[in-house]
Amino acid sequence: MKCISRVLALCCALSISFSAQAQTKGFKGKPIEAGLFLGGSNYMGDLTPSIAFGETHLSGGLICRFNYSDFLTLRGNAVFGRISGDDKNYGNMNGSADEAFRYQRNLSFRSNVMEISAIAEWNLAGFGETMRDRPSSPYLFAGVGIFKFNPLAQFNYMADVTDAAGYKIHDPQLEKFDGQWIELQTLATEGQETTKFNDRRRYPLTQICIPIGIGYKAQFDDYWAIGMEFGIRQTFTDYMDDISKDYVDEAIVGGNNGLLAAALADRSPELGYTKYEFGTQRGDDSRFDRYMFFGLTLTRKIVGGKTVCFQF
Q1: Domain locations in the chain?
Q2: Is the dihedral of CA 260, 261, 263, 264 positive or negative?
Q3: Which of 206, 214, 232 is CA-nearest to residue 41?
Q4: What CATH fold (topology level) applies to the domain 2-302?
Q5: In Å, how far are 206, 217, 239 from 186, measured between CA atoms?
Q6: List of residues 6+ apart from 35 with CB closer than 8 A
Q7: Residue 169: phi, psi to the nearest 5?
Q8: How far is CA 43 from CA 47, 81, 233, 240, in A?
Q9: How far, in whole angstroms, is CA 57 from its chain's centroid?
Q10: Among candidates 65, 73, 109, which has minimal Cα distance to 88?
């Protein structure tokens, strides 16, 4: 966030420094624009088979555009948002088999997402960046980015709750973690890098994504432009929610990473169920997770090639 604040301050300073010129001059050619993105973020993965609108969070960031031609715009993004998912959104004890499974699985997570990306916009109608020449256009975009995430789950200590076999589900040693948001990657909840599952590596928290989407932008004077867009980020990980494969024996997970790891790997006992058997499906590793940013953009021309005085 400090990095974003510094870039934002630089953009504001540049904008102010050029505002004096803007009083008597207009841009000609293909200038560079800088501005803000503000909107929402969401995700689709093992905890959300379809978009859960209740899991939408505020997102924002900085964008910088170079209008290479009327039909091609090159853009850089630095965007921050949050994603989350919860089996309670789709779980129903008396519903379908899938709903009943989600109800019993009882998993949830949240994660901040920071993305830096390079994107190409294809302006379908051509975009002239002035009020006099094609001032608006829908566009398609695609690019490549790097994003950082870190899935967390909130642990709720249950002192007197027992599972179906009559055993207390939480050891008293776990009381100190009550209400805390716990980093899941370090706990290796699916047995990553244990002796039995040494082939399962801990997933990296910084990865590559492919942003694709659609938008619309329009000038409202010769310097400022506003737009809206929706973009999906295709990732190459199935662990944005810390869920992918199957349940691992409690002794393996807990023995390697402690009681907290075992408690967060299988949360069905919190609803009175017996822990899942070793090898039972926990997630679907047949497809990667995706996340999305959508919202409004506001940009201003801050520097360009040639300028020309207005003719009166």
Answers
A1: 2-302
A2: positive
A3: 232
A4: Porin (2.40.160)
A5: 14, 42, 13
A6: 11, 62, 63, 64, 225, 297, 298, 299, 300
A7: -80, -20
A8: 9, 11, 9, 9
A9: 10
A10: 109
Distance, in Å, from the CA atom of 72 to the CA atom of 120, rounded to the nearest integer, reads 7
The per-residue pLDDT for range 61-101, each reduced to its tens digit, is 999 999 898 899 999 999 999 999 999 999 998 889 999 99
pLDDT tens digit sequence for 27-54: 455 789 999 999 999 999 999 988 899 9
Residue owning tokens 């519903």: 95
DSSP string for residues in 160-199: S-B-TTS-BSS-GGGGGGTT-EEESGGGTTT-TTSSTTTT
Q: Name the token pair of 183.
A: 């980093």
Per residue in 110-120, pLDDT (tens digit) is 999 999 999 99
Q: What are phi and psi of 209, to 5 degrees?
A: -135, 165
d(CA 194, CA 196): 5
First to last CA, the chain: 45
Tokens of 94: 């008396």
